[in-house]
Design a protein that fits this description.
CATH architecture of one domain: 3-Layer(bba) Sandwich
Mean pLDDT: 93
InterPro entries: FAD/NAD-bd_sf, GMC_OxRdtase_N, GMC_OxRtase_C, MIP_CS, P2Ox-like
Keywords: FAD, Flavoprotein, Oxidoreductase
CATH class of one domain: Alpha Beta
Structural class: alpha/beta
Number of strands: 20
Family: Belongs to the GMC oxidoreductase family.
Organism: Halosimplex aquaticum
Radius of gyration: 23 Å
Number of helices: 12
Protein name: GMC family oxidoreductase
């Protein structure tokens, strides 16, 4: 078949919907073990040689964030009706590689307490698996993705294996904030991240473009297309620009029979398979299930519990920035090199978990400074000196508890380019999140003030930014009346439907979720292989 042939495969053991890190890892893991795998991706392929142009697009004032990856318009329409506006098209990407095409790349593990929130604190619910159950998959995921890190975090969960690569050295501004933390009795350590500190897995070491978020032109930062390419080399077939419209099940409602997808010309096809994996993230996964309603499942496929779309979580993001009286000489590194997890594990139920990272923030770009101040020649130079290089900042990711009222539904009043109702994202913050945020902001302010900075911005506790980590909308659990998938990531209702996504998280902790997504994807692939 040609690269642009989008007709169904005649035979497929496994059909994977979504070509992000979860879909890519599942596809590769199964293809290497002899399964015939087909991957269906809604967005386009993004060749490596196009990424430099996308970086340049990001740097030009005429383009906004979503222009870099072509997000927006009728295809990506959505509504946001929650307490806080949810910027969905800034948090996701439709394309081969998925949202990891623009992620920052941090790969911490969840802590044991994150799996035991009800047992420890009487909050939310426990996962049906423990940290120890996921521990070997965490190690395998770090190897698969290529993680740089160091054994310098006294608060990290237990591990035996060293990181595949050494950690990145701390930046100049880290030394300023690190000294302040030392005075305050706060331990600082490195950040594990899926970014090559040396050549790894055929990809170069980081070359310092500093535009990691939203685009890494060199390929040194891992993204899901790495495993898609590996899966294809093992015989998997990957179709791009084929959004799945719905899943169809057998007459008994016990097994999925086909994924119905549309090609760019609007033609619909049915891809049949023995097993199906949904790997579309925490927004599009529940949307697809809701779009797949039938007489047997009038409230949406795999939704006998009513939990599909519910319990939407994200990490609450808070920034505190300031300026020093003397220039720091700091340049845009593009990613954090130091954080503190000192405030993550806690004895009392509330405030909850958070961590604080150092931003390596150098201030607004020189172009923005020049354009905003106006003038010519020496006036522009003076404006740049005033606004660039003396800034310093921190970020905090804050834990949010699952709430059934925080959810993804279908907005029947608005449709996408195929006439389907768009997702309505109703995101709430909650008292636990606000209380934890207030503590996190106090810690951030203390650090900056101890460093001698004058604070010029702090995110309000009740108006958080999105951490771009949607989770929880098809959650995992032992009770089919309260959850969507079991500990094997298989839906309770359909025997051949697996979900590999942050949507299965019962709780979200405050750690970046991608490594956990990768670990769960490896686990899901093992179970699918066992069922062959």
């Amino acid at each position: 078949m040609s690269a642009t042939d989008r007709t169904p495969s005649e035979r497929a053991d496994v059909c994977v919907v979504g070509a992000g890190p979860a879909g890519g890892i599942v596809a590769h893991s199964l293809a290497t073990r002899g399964h015939d795998v087909v991957v269906l991706e809604a967005g386009p392929r993004v060749p490596l040689d196009e990424r430099l142009a996308r970086m340049e697009r990001h740097q030009r004032p005429a383009h906004d964030w979503t222009d870099v990856w072509g997000m927006g318009g009728e295809r990506d329409a959505y509504t946001s009706t929650g307490d806080v506006d949810y910027p969905l098209n800034r948090t996701r990407i439709k394309g081969v590689g998925g949202t990891t095409l623009h992620w920052i790349g941090y790969t911490p593990r969840l802590h044991p307490k994150d799996f035991e929130m009800e047992s420890r604190y009487g909050l939310a619910t426990d996962w049906p698996i423990s940290y120890d159950d996921l521990r070997p998959y965490y190690a395998a995921a770090e190897t698969e993705m290529g993680v740089s890190g160091a054994d310098d975090n006294p608060f990290a969960p237990p591990r035996e294996e060293p990181f595949p690569m050494e950690a990145f050295p701390p930046s100049h501004s880290d030394s300023i904030l690190g000294a302040a933390c030392e005075e305050l009795g706060i331990d600082v350590h490195s950040v594990p991240q899926a970014r090559n500190s040396e050549g790894y897995d055929g990809r170069s070491a980081c070359v310092g473009y500093g535009t990691c978020h939203p685009v890494c032109p060199s390929g040194a930062k891992y993204d899901g297309s790495v495993h898609i390419r590996k899966a294809e080399s093992e015989g998997a077939r990957v179709l791009d620009r084929v959004p799945v419209q719905r899943l169809e099940h057998d007459t008994e409602g016990e097994r999925v029979e086909a994924a119905v997808y549309a090609t760019p010309d609007g033609t619909e096809h049915r891809q049949e398979a023995r097993q199906f994996v949904i790997a579309c993230g925490a927004i599009e996964t529940p949307r697809l299930l809701l779009l797949s309603k039938s007489e047997t499942y009038p409230d949406g496929l795999a939704n006998s519990s009513g939990a599909v779309g519910r319990y939407l979580m994200d990490h609450l993001l808070y920034l505190v920035t300031g300026q020093l009286t003397e220039p720091t000489g700091q340049h845009q590194v593009g990613f954090s090199t130091s954080v503190t997890h000192q405030f993550y594990d806690h004895e009392e139920a509330s405030p909850g978990s958070f961590f604080v990272g150092f931003l390596n923030y150098a201030g607004p770009s020189p172009v923005e400074a020049a354009l905003s101040d106006g003038g010519w020649g020496d006036d522009v130079t003076a404006a740049i000196r005033r606004s660039y290089g003396g800034h310093i900042g921190t970020e905090a990711l804050v834990e949010q508890l699952p709430d059934p009222a925080s959810r993804v539904t279908l907005d029947d009043s608005r449709t996408d380019d195929h006439g389907n109702p768009v997702p309505d994202v109703h995101w709430t913050v909650g008292d636990h999140g606000r209380a934890t945020a207030e503590k996190a902001i106090r810690v951030q302010r203390d650090i900056l003030e101890e460093a001698g900075a004058s604070i010029d911005y702090a995110t309000p506790p009740d108006r958080p930014l999105s951490g771009s980590h949607p989770m929880g909308t098809t959650r995992m659990g032992e009770d089919p009346s309260e959850s969507v998938v079991d500990s094997r990531l298989r839906t309770h209702d359909l025997a051949n439907l697996t979900i590999a996504s942050s949507s299965v998280f019962p709780t979200g902790g405050a750690m970046n979720p991608t490594l956990t997504i990768a670990a769960l994807s490896l686990k899901a692939a093992d179970h699918i292989h066992e069922d062959r």
